[in-house]
Write a structure and sequence with these properties.
This protein is mainly α. The protein has a single domain, classed as 23S rRNA-intervening sequence (de novo design (two linked rop proteins)), CATH 1.20.1440. About 70% of the residues lie in helices and about 0% in strands. The longest helix has about 30 residues. The chain is elongated and about 50 Å long. It starts with a helix and ends with a helix. About 5% of the residues have low confidence.
């Protein structure tokens, strides 16, 4: 069942306790939102096109890396110290580079066409740029503290 990214935002559930501020949650970060779009691009557009013989190879690698992009931003956001968060954001960025390589492999092996390849590259590059900006912002916050 294919879900659109637009409909997914309606399903986010936040903590409703009085001490929770929904304006200060990882789901509000542009870097996380873009990593999430990358994840769903691969799940909805690339993975269905892979042949069965890639089930335990490329498919598994793509699943792990695409989930890692958003999950590491979330985990980094939950860290108490800036440096701990930065380390997880860097892991997320590394997973984006890994996904770029997997996308190139899918194109080279003719599992996907040029249009899908270009769309994936654009999503990945946009997510990396945003994440790099966020890492820079967090580094500045660390320097102030």
């Amino acid at each position: 069942m294919k879900k659109s990214i637009k409909n997914l935002d309606e399903n986010l559930v936040g903590d409703t306790s009085t001490s929770y501020d929904s304006n200060r949650d990882f789901t509000t970060l542009e870097a996380w939102k873009k990593a999430r779009k990358v994840k769903f691009f691969f799940y909805n557009s690339v993975l269905p096109l892979l042949p069965k013989e890639e089930r335990y190879g490329l498919r598994s690698q793509i699943q792990n890396a695409s989930v890692s992009c958003a999950a590491n931003i979330a985990e980094g956001y939950g860290r108490y110290h800036y440096q701990g968060g930065i380390q997880f954001y860097r892991i997320s960025r590394a997973s984006m580079y890994e996904l770029k390589d997997h996308l190139i492999t899918c194109y080279d092996l003719e599992y996907i066409g040029k249009e899908l390849f270009d769309e994936g590259l654009e999503l990945i590059e946009d997510a990396k740029i945003t994440l790099n900006g966020y890492i820079g912002y967090v580094k500045k916050q660390k320097a102030k503290s």
